[in-house]
Amino acid sequence: MTLGEAEMSLRPDVAVPDPESLFEQPGSVWRIAARRFFQRKVGIAGLILVCFMILVAIFAPLIAPYDPYQNFIGVEGAERWAPPCINAFGCEGPQHIFGLDGNVRDFFSRVVYAARVSLPLGFTTVLITIVIGTVIGAIAGYAGGWSDNVLMRIMDVVLGFPSLILAIAIVFVLGPGLRNTLLAIAIVTIPQYARVMRASVLSVKEVDYVWASRALGASPWKVLVTRVVPNALTPLVVLGTLGIATVILEAAALGFLGLGAVPPTPEWGSMLAAERDRIFTAPHLMIFPGLAIMITVLGFNLMGDGLRDALDPTLNK
Amino acid sequence: MIGYILRRLLIAIPVLIGVLLVVFLLVRLVPGDPCTALLGERATPEACERFNEVNGLNEPLYVQLGIYFGNVLSGDFGESIRFSRPVSDIIIERLPVTLELAIAALSIAVIVGIPLGIMAARRHNTTADVAAMAFANVGVSMPIFWLGLLLAYLFAVVLLGTPLALPPSGSLSPGTRPLPFYEVWGWQISEEGFGATVAEFISNMTVTNAFISFQWEIFWDAVQHMILPAITLATIPMAIIARMTRSSLLDVLGRDYIRTARAKGAVERRVVRRHALRNAMLPVVTIIGLQLGLLLGGAVLTETVFGLAGVGTALFEAINARDFPIIQGFTVVIAATYVIVNLLVDISYGYLDPRVRLE
Nearest CB to A276: which of B16, B149, B300? Predict the structure, then answer.
């Protein structure tokens, strides 16, 4: 009996660890995080919503009964702004479960296809922001000195604007359209990522394994790329997941202001803008695109919360 | 403390200069010149030449920049190309509307959000907690322009004819002409001067003006017009404040000094109010300060939905009309407000938590 075991056996309130568990593989950080993520309902709920929207986007051609651009002008029973007509509920005309929009197009098909615009937009924008934010934050945090100062002051200037105002100004300069929406939102959100990355790098760069790597003679770049950045990325995963929600909301806002996707592209924000004057006569055209935005954003928000809880080492049980 | 304030000020100044520079460059980068935008596609070259001359658009860029900095520092933002009026006049007209809306929204967010968060934390893991957090999660996930449209539909169409019906647009009923408070008070206001500007500014805050000049019918009308936009704009900050209050209070309630307080026999209400809340409010104050950017951005959308003549709609209209001086002036004012409020939040944080000053 070792000293430790003897001590434990003297204290009945301290559980002696099950000897079997000592032989289990400890598992990587990510495996532990995944296990913790799936223990909490919030994250799972978010994941389900996100997967649902991704499936909708992938299988849009199978889900949507019509082409989102096809109009039913002149088709019998099809009227502009017609309310939803569902056969199962006793409606007898041609079935349009979300009704028809101002250009006599099947609204359900358009809402479904719009997922193919917003989701990829969210993913690409966040991917670009993470890459650029990581580079800026890592250089600032690792190099320190004047490069840190210059980079962070530039980031401060961008953060000096309310983000939507700056995004509006940038899209206005570049012209409307999805690519410019992406650029504008990326520019206004990069500073957040750069700041988080910088803070993360600052805390990681003094850790023992980084010193060990340096002591073994690795070049500063090698240390930065192979040791510091991979270990500093964790907070960006959470920020990125929540960031997709922000991007989708801001893109919808720009679309609503007429600065985002150009008609006839189906996009939730601009669909709301196109029909907003009809709110008092055809409210169904308001409800569905907004609901789609809300479900998507809610999904990413919940998933981000779940990831944060799973990756936060201070919550270790 | 003074050293801390000075340090914060020194950080804010380069940011403000950078912001001015970015606005100046962005406005110059816009494709298409203001001349054809304003005088029309068929404007003669001579007309354009004269137009550029009058508006100082012929000078080299660095000269324009120098003039611009000098003017901004003296509060002169030039003259609107579209309205032929000084931009500062338009700011005095529009900014109060947005300011009043933002203050109303932030008040609602704080008054509802903090108690909601406290309630959720005290009943941790009960149905009430889960419901409050579900509400908060949905709140942060809604596009605010959509929420505005839904509220407008609910209160102006569905509830039409009931006492709950509310007007969906404008800041006063058509035909309402409120008197400026200074006229009601019998003040003689001179045309120029700082006092006159301030008086004009306040009189443009519809609700405040009607209240301080006792025009109760107009006050009630203005309040009714304010309710929907204010709730719309308040929803996201409210949700964020509620979540922050909850998690911060939960964190504090688990601390040793709370156990001490309970152990010495303090009643739960006193433990929460005296011991926990004071310590839990720090992060909440920060998060309230951070909402300002959201409020200013959200104001553009809210004002568009509810047809309010505030800063947001002015900026948006100016962008569509390529009214450079207005775009420039309003963006500068919005960004400057933002930087200054963030500065005040930083300073108040240093005041509330002495540890911050030592960083």
Answer: B149
SS3 B322: coil
Task: Map out the domains of chain A with their CATH numbers.
Answer: 48-72+106-315 (1.10.3720.10)
B75: left (phi over 0), alpha (psi -120 to 50) or beta: left
| Closest by Cα among A178, A31, A129, A118 to A300 | A118
**Is A317 a residue whose pLDDT tops 50?**
no
Q: Which residue of B has its CA nearest to A291?
A: B142
Residue-wise pLDDT for B252-305, tens only, equals 888 888 888 888 888 888 888 888 888 888 888 878 877 877 787 788 889 989
Q: Do B29 and A301 touch (CB under 8 A)?
A: no
Averaged over A175-185, what is the pLDDT?
90
Does B187 contact A at CB distance below 8 Å? no
Nearest-angstrom CA–CA distance, B95 and B333: 9
What number is the average pLDDT over the span A128-135? Answer: 94
State how far the Cα of A108 lies from the Cα of B268, in Å rounded to an integer. 53
Dihedral angle over CA of B71, B77, B79, B80, nearest 10: 150
Residues of A in contact with B18 (CB under 8 A): 153-154, 156-157, 160
pTM: 0.85
- State yes or no: pLDDT of B317 exceeds 90: no
- Tell me how close the Cα of B190 comes to any Cα of chain A, in angstroms: 35
Residue A222's alpha-carbon distances to A143, A205, A228, B65, B286, in angstroms, are 13, 13, 9, 43, 38
Please say if the pLDDT value at position A261 is more than 90.
no
Cα nearest neighbour of A170 on chain B: B26
Residue B228 backbone dihedrals phi, psi, to 5 degrees: -65, -50
> Which residue of A40, A152, A256, A281 to mutate against B (max B Cβ within 10 Å)?
A256
Asked whether residue A1 carries a pLDDT value surpassing 60, the answer given is: no
A174 touches A183 (CB < 8 A): yes
What distance in Å separates the CA atoms of residue A91 and residue A93, rounded to the nearest whole number? 6
Confidence check: pLDDT of A244 > 90: yes
Q: Is the pLDDT at B250 greater than 80, yes or no?
A: yes
End-to-end CA distance of chain B: 12
Is the Cβ pair A249, B143 closer than 8 Å? Answer: yes
- Collect all residues of chain B within an 8 Å Cβ-Cβ radius of residue A294: 138, 141-143, 146
